[in-house]
Structure formats: C-alpha cells, structure tokens
Amino acid sequence: MIASEKITYLDNNATTAIDPAVLEAMRPFLEKYFANPSSGYRFAAQVRDAIEQAREQVAALLGCEPGEIVFTSCGTESNNTAFHSALETRPECKHVVTTSVEHSAVRKPAQELERHGYEVTVIGVDKSGRLSLRALADAIRSDTALVSVMWANNETGVIFPIEEIAEIARDKGVPLHTDAVQVAGKISINLREIQLQFLSISGHKLHAPKGVGALYVNRRSRFHPLILGGSHENNRRAGTENAASIVGLGKAAEIALAKLPEEQTRVRNLRDRFEKGLIEKISNARVNGAGAPRLPNTSSVMFDEIESEAALMMLDQENICCSAGSACRTGSLQPSHVLSAMGLVNEQARGSLRFSFGRFNDEADIDRALEIVPGVIGKLQALSPAASR
Ligand SMILES: *Cc1c(COP(=O)(O)O)cnc(C)c1O
Does residue 389 have a pLDDT over 60? Predict the structure, then answer.
C-alpha cells in the first residue's frame, strides 16, 4: 500500500476522503448502538433519533423540510428512484427529456426506457457546455413524464441554471429531477426558492462514506418507491437503515453547510491558480467549459497531442491522482460523451484530463501538481507523431 500522505489527490469528483469528524460521529453506531431502528425498545429509539437528526442536517444543507429527505444507498439509487417514481405516477406519459451530458446514473436509466417503448429527447449543449433553455422548453410535451437535468457536470463542473429550468418545467406542469451529486457542499442549495420534484445527492462526494445517498422528494409530489419491503423511510425506501452511514451523511452535510462560504473561495483560489499555472506552462492548454459558469473545484483541461491514458499512467507513477473524464470511464478508450457533446473531436476529448479539488487540498498540492503535470504533458507531446512532423 502507498501511504496516503504521499498521494496528491486531485480527483474529488470521483470520491472524497471521509472527514475525521464524520468518522467520529459514525463510530458509536458501528460499535455500540447497533439496534435495528425499527425495534420497539429505547435502545432502538436512540438509533432512530440519530437518523432523524441526520435527516434534519441534510434538509438544512438543501434548504428543505426533513420529511422531504429519503435516505438511499447512493446517488445512483437516488437517480433511479426519481425516474421510477415519476414514471409510475404518470403511467400514461411515455416521454422523458434529459441532456447529452448526464452521468451514466441518468443516461442508462433513460436508455433503458427507450427499450421499453418510451421516447427520450436528449438536449445537446454548446461548445462551452451550456444548455439551450429554448430547446429544453420546446422539447417538453403534454405526455412528458419527467425532465431530468443535472445541476452541475461531474466532468467539467459546468453549472446549469436550475432555477430557470425549474420554472420552465413548472410552467409546463412536468416534474423535474436534478442530479445534484456534484453540487451538494460546493455551491449553496435552497429548495425553498426552487420548485422541483426530485434532487439526488451522494455521501461519498461530500466527505461521508460510500454507500449512502439521499433523494429529496418535494412534499407536494406523489411518490412511488423503487425498493419495496418494510415501511422504512416512511414507506419510501424499504430496507433496514444504514444507520452509521446515514449519521455520517448528516454530519457531512452539517460540516459542508458550515464551511461552504469559506471553502468555496479557498478551493476556487486553488483551482484558479492551478489553471493559470498550467496555461502559462503548457502551450495551447485549454479549459473545457471555461465560457460557462462552473463549480469552484473542477478543472477539465484539454492538451494538444497527448493520450489521457498515457498521462494518467505517468501521473500515477508520481502519485498524482486525477482522471480522464469520469472515474467510471477509466480503462475505456471511448472519448467522454460529455466532451464529445461539447463538440470536441475524439483526439481533443482523449487529450483531456480532469482535476478536481476539495477540502483536504492545499497550496502544497497545487505547487506539486504545477511542478509535475507540465513535465508529463511535455514528455508526451515530444513523443507524439506531430512532434516529428
Ligand atoms: C458520482 C456521481 C453519481 C453517482 O453517485 P454514487 O453514489 O457513486 O452512485 C451520480 N451523478 C453524478 C453527477 C456523480 O458525480
């Protein structure tokens, strides 16, 4: 095993380290308070109370009511649940609207629907990654069961104007789901000011453990559970609660909310310094999505004449962790669907790397990245066929 101190971890959109305070909050529920929260005795009530406290903490982060939070096993389950609920509640509607840059946890459910006779309209983006709201509005029909549009993109950090999108969907009377997995803890969310039906988050993207997530379900919308069984989560998600992880997600939400203003600025400064340094040191390095509003923590950078897979291997030798597109695509030679949707040709998409920063990054990480990355890119460019032309 490589000691984690030696690792420069710049892949916070793939997953994040558990915050020590989150681990501390979870520990009693792994060691001592093991009761099934559904049991009748007081020992179980303590676990139940902790879950309800976590629900309040997550609701505070999202600006909604605790009763609107359903705990799930991950962001992927939250997305699938939103789809399932929307389609089950409006069985006569056989049309769904989504975008060309969604995470696979929305793309795949949408593709599956096509095999089941649904029509899916996929809205494209421009070269900065921006969505045409006109195209979105035009795509929504009277038989549209769901509009699913991510809030911020995991590969580029590009932020969609969810407030305006919510207004469009509301005017058309169609439910809106947003995958906000990359947004929670990075920019502020206030669901009292945005009227939408479903919003997904995931624990491990905000310093809670893997294997826990949440789905916001607007209290005014009808709901149909995906996972059937006991009456857990107010009949919205069956299965004995993952109490320790739920407590962890609650704590992570509390910390994220408290630190949000200061962390936003700090991480943005790190990211900006990194991008500026790269652009200075590497000719023609370009930031994907630079023309659009972006999350403060994400840099997707395109380099001339490199293969991201080779760059990742060389960076790995230096213990720098980053990714080509999303973590889910590692090992595949397909160019990123997100970058392709932005009009990058295959070589450009395959010459892009994603660096994503977070709470546990500091100036020293940026120093190190700016010391190593330009050298790696320079070496690969010198080896490329274009260099000998
Ligand atoms: C990571 C991620 C997911 C999936 O969340 P899991 O908890 O890993 O299932 C979904 N959407 C986006 C945008 C993500 O970044």
Answer: no
